[in-house]
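Researcher: We are triaging several targets before committing to wet-lab work. For this one, the compound of interest is NAP. I'm pasting the protein sequence and the ligand SMILES. What I need is the predicted three-dimensional arrangement of the protein with the ligand bound, expressed as structure tokens, so it can go straight into our comparison scripts without reformatting.
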Amino acid sequence: MAGVVASFCMSLDGFVARPDDSVGPLFDWYTAGDVEVPMVGYPITFRVSPSSADYLRSHLDAVRHSAFVCGRRVFEYTHGWGGSPPGGGAAFVVTHRPPPSDWPAAHLAPFTFVSSVSEAVELAKAAGDGTVGVSGPSIAQQCLNLGLLDEVRIDLVPVFLGEGVRYFAHLGGSNASLERVEVVLGSGVTHLLYRVRYPDS
Ligand SMILES: NC(=O)c1ccc[n+]([C@@H]2O[C@H](COP(=O)([O-])OP(=O)(O)OC[C@H]3O[C@@H](n4cnc5c(N)ncnc54)[C@H](OP(=O)(O)O)[C@@H]3O)[C@@H](O)[C@H]2O)c1
């Protein structure tokens, strides 16, 4: 795997969060199994089924030396992961605003606040091994519309949320297509990996 990768847990009706931004049952599969998989860069350990463990490990290995791009809401919702963003490398927060004046963990990991998605992706590619993890549906959609997104990973959870935050709600004029790379059946989740193809690529 390489390039710019968006990865989300999604309900069967296409939501990545409830209206209050909580993920509810979408993350249950992370703790529903017996196989331990430590997260890279952030001090948590997942407990998942054997097939999910294999899938997760391959993804985490691929992003081990990557950088990370997210939007301001994800940054604030996670409190900047306490200064340890997923992947453990540099993190770029897309925002119109300056960093919080009391941002306490800035010394723990290199966080950079930038005002453009394309600049964030460019800086993130240069800061890591070229692989960039994207978090936040808004940033993922903007990357897709800019022709910057290379892979879409969906952990499809068989629940209906009915309302909330959609993964791809604002596709603009994107005419990208998706090429299936991998489908893995887990317990309470189906992992889907697609390569993004643009008309001129
Ligand atoms: N299910 C999952 O796996 C999963 C994973 C991650 C997140 N989530 C969910 O995703 C939601 C948050 O993501 P989101 O997409 O709604 O918000 P987001 O992208 O994290 O934040 C949106 C904010 O980022 C800034 N921003 C976005 N695009 C910009 C641009 N082009 N230029 C400058 N600033 C820009 C703006 O902040 P300012 O204007 O305020 O600066 C904007 O209000 C939450 O509900 C969270 O629970 C789910």
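Researcher: Any quick observations?
Model: The chain is about 20% helix and 30% strand.
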